[in-house]
């Protein structure tokens, strides 16, 4: 499989021959090598204008002028910049977070629901004429013509767009596994790779196939998990096998749930009860289960979600575009289950830009007449809370011992300014309300993936050309 879009020069080499870095505008770089390091294992982010994170007591903090010290992909220390704690000999790379107005650092965002290969089908959602159902039907025809290379190139397109929007972890829900794993490896994105255990379009997908992948999970770059497209499409026998796999391998199980009332009724017909009640009865209700959408859920079901600690991914843009209905956010708050909600993008057929900031704003607007979702809560849904729901461990906060997944945003930007300097927490509201700007730099597991707005691993210009060619080839195959 040719991978023309792979960039040949690693960041360290680019920095060594810094004259060429980012064209001629070297003065704009914030990167400085210390001595002649052989690798970039120890990085100091010096004097960031603000570090925004949820702290150990689950409270949102906006910390002015802080430094972050990273060793081997893990945050070692976070401290006020005036304390010169780390000596130069313990640093390979210095990142200047202070100059030219400074940088705002947030945890990398966490996307709870995506279908990455569908990126190749982007123009299927034009929403100009015709209704969305017709368009989804057409899209499925195009999708049926996709080949392994199309899945790969689509997933690379998806992951790189998400990275530019500050997302460092993605839960992928799809029927193919290997191309998504390869795309994760090429982009160094953290990917939970939930492969369908039951699929109409890919009849080869069975619980046995999923188990073969789970058995060799250490061989893969991504983290394997299990998905089901809709509960009612699976048989009791298949669901029993899936339940055993979840238990034996302690993996996540994700599914589209109660996206519309039709599917709920299909579930009632097959299992005798509504979605969440059926999950309880089938032994699939638990903290390893993550439901996307969960729109048509009764109050009793919300209480069951709380009781069984089931994770929920809220996708307001997708729900609006597909006329799925309105997620019962206030009922989740009432039942104390709102801490089990994170956000997702869905695919490009269900959302405009693959970012979470606009999804957070959409969440706020969608529920505003019944419940005001606070900016602090929205920020948690994109970071710390999502990490808990997806069982990521020490991820999603900027604290010592946490994984160095970080997004770097320019403060001197219309997405942040003007803000109230006496109450800098207003930056979080600004960021969510006036979002849509891409990261300046992005770090995944202590490695800079985007520097000075350029992707270090993927040649985006080449990638876009290849995406376009692959897309047209797909349309030609469909016409034949
Ligand atoms: Zn979906």
Describe this structure in words.
There is one protein chain. By secondary structure, the chain is an alpha/beta fold. It has 2 domains: 165 residues, Urease, subunit C, domain 1 (Roll), CATH 2.30.40.10; 274 residues, Metal-dependent hydrolases (TIM Barrel, Alpha-Beta Barrel), CATH 3.20.20.140. Helix content is 33%, strand content 22%. The protein contains 16 helices and 18 strands. The model has no long low-confidence stretch (mean pLDDT 93). Bound molecules: zinc ion (ZN). Zinc ion binds next to loops.
Any descriptors?
single chain, 480 residues, alpha/beta, Urease, subunit C, domain 1, TIM Barrel, 2 domains, ten-stranded mixed beta sheet, 16 helices, 33% helix, binds zinc ion
Short précis:
This protein has 480 residues and is of the alpha/beta class. Helices cover 33% and strands 22% of the residues. It is globular.
Structural class category: alpha/beta
CATH architecture of the largest domain: Alpha-Beta Barrel
Stretches where pLDDT is under 50 for at least 5 consecutive residues are none
First-to-last CA distance: 24 Å
Share of helical residues? 25-40%
> In the CATH hierarchy, what is the superfamily of the largest domain?
Metal-dependent hydrolases
Give the C-level CATH assignment of the largest domain.
Alpha Beta
Shape, principal axes of CA atoms: globular
- Number of separate domains: 2
Number of strands: 18
Task: Indicate the proportion of strand residues.
Answer: 15-25%
Rg, alpha carbons: 22 Å
Q: Specify the biggest β-sheet.
A: 10 strands, mixed
Number of helices: 16
The fold-level CATH name of the largest domain is: TIM Barrel
Which ligands, by name, code or SMILES, are bound? zinc ion
């Amino acid at each position: 499989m040719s991978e023309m879009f792979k960039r040949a020069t690693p960041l360290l080499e680019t920095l060594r021959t810094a004259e060429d870095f980012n064209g001629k505008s070297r003065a704009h770089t914030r990167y400085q090598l210390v001595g002649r390091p052989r690798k970039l294992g120890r990085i100091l982010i010096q004097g960031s204008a603000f570090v925004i994170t949820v702290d150990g007591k689950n409270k949102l903090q906006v910390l002015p002028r802080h430094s972050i010290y990273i060793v081997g992909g893990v945050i070692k220390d976070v401290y006020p910049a005036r304390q010169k704690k780390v000596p130069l000999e313990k640093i390979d790379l210095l990142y200047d977070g202070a100059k030219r107005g400074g940088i705002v650092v947030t945890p990398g965002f966490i996307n709870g629901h995506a279908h990455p290969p569908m990126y190749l089908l982007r123009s299927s959602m034009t929403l100009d004429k015709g209704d969305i159902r017709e368009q989804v039907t057409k899209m499925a025809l195009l999708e049926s013509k996709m080949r392994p290379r199309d899945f790969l190139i689509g997933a690379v397109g998806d992951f790189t767009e998400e990275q530019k929007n500050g997302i460092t972890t993605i839960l992928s829900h799809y029927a193919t596994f290997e191309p998504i794993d390869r795309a994760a490896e090429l982009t160094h994105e953290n990917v939970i790779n939930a492969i369908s255990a039951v699929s109409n379009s890919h009849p080869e997908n069975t619980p046995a196939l999923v188990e073969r992948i789970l058995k060799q999970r250490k061989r893969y770059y991504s983290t394997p998990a299990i998905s089901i497209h809709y509960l009612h499409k699976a048989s009791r026998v298949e669901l029993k096998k899936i339940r055993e796999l979840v238990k034996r391998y302690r993996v996540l199980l994700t599914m589209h749930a109660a996206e519309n009332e039709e599917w709920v009724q299909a579930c009632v017909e097959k299992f005798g009860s509504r979605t969440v009640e059926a999950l309880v009865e089938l032994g699939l209700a638990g903290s390893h289960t993550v439901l996307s959408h969960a729109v048509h859920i009764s109050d009793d079901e919300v209480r069951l979600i709380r009781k069984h600690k089931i994770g929920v991914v809220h996708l307001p843009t997708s729900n609006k575009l597909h006329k799925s209905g309105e997620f019962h956010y206030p009922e989740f708050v009432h039942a104390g289950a709102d801490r089990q909600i994170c956000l997702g993008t869905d695919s490009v057929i269900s959302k405009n830009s693959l970012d979470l900031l606009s999804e957070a704003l959409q969440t706020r607007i969608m529920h505003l007449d019944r419940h005001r979702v606070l900016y602090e809560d929205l920020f948690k849904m994109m970071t710390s809370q999502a990490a808990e729901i997806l069982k990521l461990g020490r991820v999603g906060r900027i604290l010592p011992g946490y994984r160095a997944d970080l997004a770097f945003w320019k403060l001197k930007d219309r997405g942040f300014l003007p803000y109230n300097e006496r109450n800098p927490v207003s930056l979080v509201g600004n960021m969510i309300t006036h979002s849509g700007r891409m990261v300046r730099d992005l770090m995944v597991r202590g490695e800079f993936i985007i520097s000075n707005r350029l992707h270090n691993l993927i040649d985006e210009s080449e990638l876009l050309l290849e995406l376009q060619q692959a897309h047209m080839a797909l349309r030609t195959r469909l016409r034949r």
